[in-house]
Amino acid sequence: MSDFPDDMPFFGDPAAPRAQAGGTGAPEGIAARALKARGGAPNYLQGLNPEQRLAVETTEGPVLVLAGAGTGKTRVLTARIAHILSQGLAYPSQILAVTFTNRAAREMKERIGVLVGGAVEGMPWLGTFHSIGVKILRRHAELAGLRSDFTILDTDDVIRLIKQLIQVEGLDDKRWPARTFANMIDGWKNKGLAPSEIPEGDARAFADGRGRKLYQAYQDRLKTLNACDFGDLLCHPIRILRANPDILREYNARFKYILVDEYQDTNTAQYMWLRLLAQRPETARSPSSPAGPSPRTRGEGSSVNVDAPLSPSLRGEGKGEGQSSTINICCVGDDDQSIYGWRGAEVDNILRFDKDFPGAAVIRLERNYRSTAHILGAASHLIAHNEGRLGKTLFTDAANADDDKVHVHAAWDSEEEARAVGETIEQAQRKGHLLNNMAILVRASFQMREFEDRFVTLGLNYRVIGGPRFYERLEIRDAMAYFRVVAQPADDLAFERIVNTPKRGLGEAAIRQVHDYARARDIPMLAAATDLVATEELKPKPRSALKQVVDNFNRWHSLLDSKPHTELAEMILDESGYTAIWQNDRTAEAPGRLENLKELIRSMEEYESLRGFLEHVALVMDAEKNEDLDAVNIMTLHSAKGLEFETVFLPGWEEGLFPHQRSLDEGGRSGLEEERRLAYVGLTRAKKNLHIWFVSNRRIHGMWQSTIPSRFLEELPEAHVEVSESGNSYGGYGQSRFDRADPFQNNYSTPGWQRAQANRSEATRSNWGSRSGANVERIGYGETDSGFGAGRGSVKGRMIDGELVAKSVSDTPSAFKPGDRVFHTKFGNGNVASIDGNKLTIDFDRAGQKRVLDNFVQRV
DNA sequence: CGCGCAAGAGAGCGT
DNA sequence: CTCTTGCGCG
């Protein structure tokens, strides 16, 4: 079986196209089409600035393109591929182009198609690290102890599996949460570490020193399940390539050109993977030991020890016949946009590029085509507070006196923040702006809800990108579990999920029996079930129920290759009784769930087979968004990278949320710098209008807490920022018509408010101004931002980790007693009903019972 | 065994 | 405040 139509020519290509401009070996059609597209002059070069053009045309040798935000990075990448193709330097199938997100891969494919005119036939190696990893792994699955139809587990499956292992070990799963261990494994795999290779300290840190054993047990279980996790999609190929020089050589000969997007986000495993693939064919040789050398650990040395050292670069040597003698790798990235350190990304990879690839050409793209001078100025000034940058200076010609400065708004609480943003959006809409051109970028996804609620009330269209995902819905996961077992009968996790859905009288006892039988013999549960129903071991009722399940799966499985997969899928859902569950369900959400199941079947039509579909879901996990609908985009800052919008809203700029407390706790100074890069990413998404918000009160874990403004606000340059009245126009700060329903709100002369102000200015040492009259007047810069260079010293002093951080929970016991009469600025007067640490339950006279933090109320 | 309610824990970002 | 887990009953 071949899932990959391009497999055929893979190792049996005709002679490689000659590496000569306009070489006669060029694949027919593409070059001709590209040239034809605009009267002989390649259209893909048109409109490129000199640096961009250099980045496109420097095809030979290692190239690092440092591309600042909005400098046309994607354009360069796509033009470069178009150039390589149309110059006949390589076949499409000889180009390895790696991105981080499926979105980026899709976009590149489309844009290359436009550039070379028509569909890009066969760019089989353009994709994400993981999709290409899967492809390699399926080809050589047996070398990793898997069959080529292996399943890719998602995070949920992984956690359930680990939980089982922890219980088997007899460990307390409360004390040793599966989620924590899943994260640890992920971290190891990000570094390419097998169980035998993890640091002793790490191994000891979990489960009383049983970390290594558990990791090994996890890998063993994956093998039995014929499954792998996300990390394995990279780690398995690395091991396979290391242990099999012949295979490595084939790939090395295969890939004439390598392109990597978002290079600053590569982790150690991805780096090792690239280094292996980016070797010259003739230098690939066998590893010194079967296991391969130990991978680099953080901070050690300056290069990764891959088996075959790279031979000295022969850059500029001119193109030889047949194959180039240089490593034609082009990495594009921006150290200022490195925001995945927590996922194991090593900015070091990009900082070290010219040492890894001697003689590398480094090209800087600094001309920004996206944002106004104010936005760019604000972003540049903010990011200048980071140390250890490669240092780029973005500039733009687009200085326009009419451009708005960056707006900073204050709101009383997150509800008002959502209201005011909604107001601003509606105003813009009335002026004719499309909602599609606006985005709300949040730090944490829980912030989204408030906006969603508000927009529903307003009847304002919105879409959540990367939010609660289609494939994570209950009914979809159930249906997928059925399909997974049919496609890959060893998938126990899927089997366990649906063996008793719908209810078949197979309770915990029966399932345990199957489970134990399977574990004892190291076979999949479906196989165990098949055995068990032939014996007398089960009670009659579960036995016949289980027999029916087994028979069903066998029958469905036998139809896998003969029946069209969408029909088969419908058949499975009907015959299993799964559809009936929701048909008989009279609750409000049942019709929606049935609709989702139909949508699921519909979306399968685009794929060739059930397995192809399952793989897509495992790797992509997001449903295509409806571009036809005009809607505001809501997403996290992380998923906004690479996008741009006319108008951008950045809510929640408060200490503890942004920068996020956990980044500071776990990452210290570098954690703070990563948060700052995230802020930079957020700012640079905006083309014309940028609105930043912070609130004084935010609800966390259902409890109101007072907050202080983010330090990042103070790092914005005064010249480009304007502190605005709140987004509405209803009588000043915070008092919109929507507030009337709540008579307790917004009394700035109250003790609580005064106290909040006192806390605030103490904590930030800034002059945010008492807002007793109306609005924040101005942002103070006195000691911080006297300029890029000069500012840094004082900034450094101010930036001691954690110094300014809002504490989420107070250490000091509450000074309140039950029965105390208190005042709360939002809810009014009330009596303390009970106390739990610093959390008070208060019966308010008019607002009812609420739980609040004690530092949020005032004794009266 | 299955359902329902109560208590307890818990929300950072994602291929 | 919201979701998951655990326990007790029918």
Question: Could you explain how this protein is built, in words?
Answer:
By secondary structure, the protein is α/β, with parallel strands linked by helices. It has five domains: 46-141 and 247-281 and 326-365, Rossmann fold (3-Layer(aba) Sandwich); 151-225, Arc Repressor Mutant, subunit A (Orthogonal Bundle), CATH 1.10.10.160; 373-468 and 625-724, P-loop containing nucleotide triphosphate hydrolases (Rossmann fold, 3-Layer(aba) Sandwich), CATH 3.40.50.300; 473-602, Orthogonal Bundle (PCRA, domain 4), CATH 1.10.486; 820-859. Helices cover 40% and strands 13% of the residues. Strands 9, 10, 11, 12, 13, 14, 15 and 16 form an eight-stranded mixed beta sheet that branches. The protein has a six-stranded parallel beta sheet with strand order 3-2-6-7-1-8. Strand 2 (95-99), helix 5 and strand 3 (126-128) form a beta-alpha-beta unit. Helix 3 (50-57) crosses helix 4 and helix 17 (414-430) packs across helix 18. The longest helix is centred in the last third of the chain and has 23 residues, at 661-683. The radius of gyration is 29 Å and the shape is globular. Mean pLDDT is 78; it is low at 1-28, 283-324 and 727-813. The protein binds a DNA duplex (15 and 10 nucleotides) through helix 6, helix 21, helix 28 and helix 29.
